[in-house]
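Hey, quick one: can you model this chain's 3D structure?
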Amino acid sequence: MKIRIKDNSVRFRLTRSEVDLLGRTGSVSCTTEFIGYHLVYTIESSADTELYVSFIENKIVLKMPEEMVMELVTTDRVGFDGQSGLVKVLVEKDFVCIDNSIEDQSDNYPNPNLEC
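Sure thing. Here's the predicted structure for all 116 residues.
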């Protein structure tokens, strides 16, 4: 899972296996290890009706409504967006990059903008 943070927006991008894990277990989580600290970012399925994000003790938690999780897992829907207080939230499937990225993209979704 990748996150992109810019000002008051947080974007979560999930690979195919992460979307599957979220659907099966109700959560997906990653950790970035800094010297002496770590940052955890998590998406959890919830009974709520809106996306909700919080940041407490080095942990970013996105609460995603169960209906959105199931739609993300079972359809071609790319993602969902919302507002949590002052923070704009976006969660979406991670597509293969069009440019020559050096990162492993083998678990990403096929990019619909690529011409075959």
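One thing worth noting: Residues 16-25 form the longest helix (10 residues).
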